[in-house]
Amino acid sequence: MKYYIIAGEASGDLHGSNLMKGLYLEDPQAQIRFWGGPLMDAVYKANEKGEGLVEDYRAGAVMGLVEVIRKGPSLLKRMDKCKKDITAWKPDVVVLIDYPGFNLKVAEFAHNAGFKVYYYIAPKVWGTREGRVKKLKAWVDKLFIVFPFEQEYFQRQGVPYVYAGNPLIDAIEESPALRETREDFLKRTGLPDRTLISLLAGSRSMEIGTMMPVFMKMADAWHASHPDDVFVVAAAPSRTMKDYERYLGGRGDYVKVVFGETYAALRHARAAVINSGTASLEAALIGTPQVVGYRMNPITAAIARRIIKVKYVSLGNLILDRYSFRELLQERFTVPNLLEELERLVQDEAYRFRMQADFAEIRTLLGGAGASRAVASAMIKDLKG
């Protein structure tokens, strides 16, 4: 069968790559064409079945209402290109991965054009913009959800869904980072054998530009009282050193940047300061004590406050339905607040133990490994049915 897959950001590329592995295993005749990134492209090149990458997500990833408006013309061109390409290739199914601002429009087009539509990692309509539920019911043949608390919600909404666990567990368990020793990690990356604190600023240039200045002020203040500690910026693999070097200044002794090392940087860190998103859940599954910080455009933030319905922004806290780790958002995302929380994360053993016990509970609630292949199998079964 022919699968047309669309992922629009780094996390979608990760989950899309694991889904593709499952599809190739479960359907030996699978032909795949996709919008994605380097991880999906690597899986395709290892199998070479289909027509491969249409466009790299890194060329057009945006976030937030204001940013979308600014890039409106280019987004419209990408949408037009996508519609024409789907029509020309005539897939058996269009598989949309997260990225609702773009993918819901694709869903409408594909459904009206007569294509079957699956949505993998559903839009977070339980948290905001619940009006999108009507669009899911109208244009999507089946949802493939990844959080246990979503089951009750979508059942109540009358949206057909499949839940087969969370693919992040697959991604983490398959990563070489979980089998590498600290000694080998330090030797390979050139990092010093000192207390490491990971910094994750997100994958979009807008996020990096917002988070890094605050991170660097925090690093300066921490270094003054903890001169032996080193901050490790776990840079997004889609970025380059140019995206970070403007913020580093003369901090080379206590701020290091590594690329494509997120899991290893988290695993070998004493604590992590993380831009809210998938990385926060990854840290929880790896077991790294963390604090989440986030700040967005004030206009976007004002709108978000009016429409967001959930109590927490971090997936780990949502899964537990309580605070396991702190979320410092908008005006609370300050250097003094970060320093106070970081001190607890690094020094308070009882605090660390409680948080890591919560992380173990999150992992249990998400289930075991094998979700990606199970989702691929469920898709194929539904298509054949």
Layout of helices and strands, plus pairs?
Layout: E1 2-7, H1 10-26, E2 31-36, H2 38-47, E3 50-56, H3 65-70, H4 72-89, E4 93-97, H5 100-112, E5 116-120, H6 132-139, E6 142-145, H7 150-157, E7 161-163, H8 167-173, H9 182-189, E8 196-200, H10 205-225, E9 230-235, H11 242-248, E10 255-259, H12 262-267, E11 271-275, H13 278-286, E12 290-294, H14 298-307, H15 315-320, E13 327-329, H16 335-347, H17 349-366, H18 371-384
Parallel strand pairs: 1-2, 1-4, 2-3, 4-5, 5-6, 6-7, 8-9, 8-11, 9-10, 11-12, 12-13
Helix pairs in contact: 1-2, 1-18, 4-5, 5-6, 10-11, 10-16
Tell me the number of structural domains: 2
Q: Report the strand count.
A: 13
The major β-sheet equals:
7 strands, parallel
User: Residue share in helices?
Assistant: 40-55%
CATH class annotation of the largest domain:
Alpha Beta
* Strand composition percent: 15-25%
Shape verdict = globular
User: What would CATH call the architecture of the largest domain?
Assistant: 3-Layer(aba) Sandwich
CATH topology of the largest domain: Rossmann fold
List low-pLDDT spans: 62-69
What is the strand arrangement across the widest sheet? Answer: 3-2-1-4-5-6-7
Q: What would you call the structural class?
A: alpha/beta
The Rg value, from CA coordinates, equals 21 Å
Number of helices: 18
CATH superfamily of the largest domain: Glycogen Phosphorylase B
The averaged pLDDT comes out at: 91
Distance between the termini: 13 Å
